[in-house]
Amino acid sequence: MSLVFAPCTGAAEVVRAGCSPDDFLTVRFDDDTFTEEFILTGVQLEFSGNYQFLHTVNDFVYFYSFGDRVGLLTLSGVSFLNTCDAVEKDGAKLFRIYDWYQENKAVKREGNALIVILTPPSGETVELYGFVTGVKIDLQQGNTGPIGYWTVRVEVLPRQKPAAKPGASLTPISAGGFGNGFLLT
């Protein structure tokens, strides 16, 4: 059972009796443990294939498959305008997630993918390679004062065979008059 203490407007602290950090999902980016700094409340991971269905006049349906699309990892959490002195997580401050985004966004990494490691309490890790492409910060007035909700968007690469090398990067390519792109190397 969680106990919520709200000593002043806009500040809160949650204490979970008998719980340790190993009881929750751990999220790591490269060598930094994201969940040690930020209060994570939700994780979504979505993958899909790249398909096309062609319906013909004669009731034939053709199916074309072009491999996998880039997936989407969405991390969401909460933060506050003010934090108690006892709060050890610097990420509990509302705009710290914006600073983290600025430090880790894809544009700043010059095409180098982040290694994303998701570890549930069972210990079976999922390793992904991705690019931080967005952040959303939403400030709402709650019963205990202003509460900030945030979402970080990470575009993750489909699993390659053989597995992508750690520190995989994108090489810029030119597509003639059709714009520029990148090649995963």
Query: Into which percentage range does the β-strand content fall?
Result: over 45%
Query: CATH architecture, please?
Result: Beta Barrel
Shape: elongated
Number of strands: 13
Oligomer: single chain
Low-confidence stretches: 1-7
Write down the domain tally: 1
Largest sheet: 7 strands, antiparallel
Radius of gyration over C-alpha positions, nearest whole angstrom: 21 Å
CATH class: Mainly Beta
Amount of helix = under 10%
**Tally of contiguous helical segments:** 2
The run of helices and strands is: EEEEHEEEEHEEEEE
Query: Please, what is the average pLDDT?
Result: 76
CATH topology: Elongation Factor Tu (Ef-tu), domain 3
CA(first)-CA(last) distance: 47 Å
Q: Which structural class matches the secondary elements?
A: mainly beta
Strand order in the largest sheet: 4-3-9-10-11-8-5
Summarize the structure.
By secondary structure, the protein is mainly beta. The chain has helices spanning 34-37, 96-104; strands at residues 2-8, 11-16, 26-29, 32-33, 39-46, 49-55, 61-68, 71-80, 114-119, 126-142, 145-156, 170-174, 180-184. A hairpin with a 5-residue loop joins strand 6 (49-55) and strand 7.
